Amino acid sequence: MKKVLVGILIVSLMFAFCGCGKERTDISDYQYMYDGIVTDWNKYATPGCERETLLGFGEYLYNSQLIFFPRETPSTLNEFYFHWTPLIDVDGYAIYFTCVLDEKNYTAFVDELSNFEVSNDTKTNKLLYDTDHFSYPTYIAQWSKVEEKWEVLEYIMLDEAKHTVVFVYTMGELEYIEEHSSYIVTPTELHFLEKDFSIYEDFDKCTYDISFLEYLK
Predict the structure, then answer these.
(1) What dihedral do alpha carbons 199, 119, 99, 157 form, nearest 10°?
(2) Each residue of 62-82: b (16+ CB within 10 Å) or e?
(3) Which 3 state secondary structure label does DSSP give 127?
(4) Which DSSP symbol is given to 168?
(5) CA–CA distance, 116 with 125 (Å, rounded to integer)
(6) Rg (CA), the chain
(7) Which of 132, 165, 178, 180 is deepest in the core (most CB within 10 A)?
(8) CA 77 → CA 91, 110, 116, 147, 185, distances in Å?
(9) Cα–Cα distance between 93 and 190 in angstroms, integer?
(10) Predicted model pTM
(11) Least reliable range by pLDDT among 1-15, 47-61, 67-81
(12) How would you classify the pairing of strands 117-119 and 124-126?
């Protein structure tokens, strides 16, 4: 364990001091958030410290499973932006993309999203729905540690007029998305929830259905 932690620290320090943060701005870069970033991370990892994925929770990880982000590049993808800042024990991430659907698929996607649930033996969680603090109706998957070191914001905005689904995820780097997106993604206020929220609570014990992501293909 000590070897792994030392290796991770070395990776972070090398990135921090050589300015090796990564940014991707083209839709052809969509897979970078899954594969490319891991390849780049492992370039500096000492043997035994390599990672197979950044999905999950803990130091240097996304602190999310990004379950609403298709693993294969959607054919409906219209914009994509990715930013990564390696830091000492918690990295900064920003991911933004939009998918433009036809009316039928958009309607079906939104209907499924509104009914989405994550369930275990004792509890069922639904996405938080907000029409007051964003530019468009928004479903929130995570909203925690706002403006703190371990901030995680993850949500989906819906532009009905253009049949466009706007995906936003960040760990402390929302300003990067705002600079590179065609949508205003920052809410009118950040501290609008009384307590932290995450759809991933006790996630390893949960069941859920994301088959509706097929509407993005």
Answers:
(1) -50
(2) bbbbbbbbbeebbebbbbbbb
(3) coil
(4) E
(5) 9
(6) 17
(7) 165
(8) 26, 17, 22, 30, 17
(9) 18
(10) 0.90
(11) 1-15
(12) antiparallel
* 189 strand-pairing partners: none
Nearest to 24 by CA among 75, 72, 80, 107: 80
Give me 114's structure tokens. 């509104």
The identity of residue 23, as a single letter, is: E
Note the pLDDT tens digit of each residue in 100-132.
999 999 999 999 999 999 998 888 999 999 999
172 by DSSP, 3-state: which? strand
* Helical (H) or strand (E) element with 9: helix 2-18
The label of the residue with tokens 């859920």 reads 208
**For position 17, what pLDDT does the model report?**
38
Contacts of 47 (CB under 8 A, 6+ apart): 7
pLDDT digits (tens, 9 = 90+) for 126-173: 999 999 999 999 999 999 999 999 999 999 999 999 999 999 999 999
- As given in the structure block, the two tokens for residue 192 are 């609008």
d(CA 83, CA 96): 9
**Predicted pLDDT of residue 21:** 67
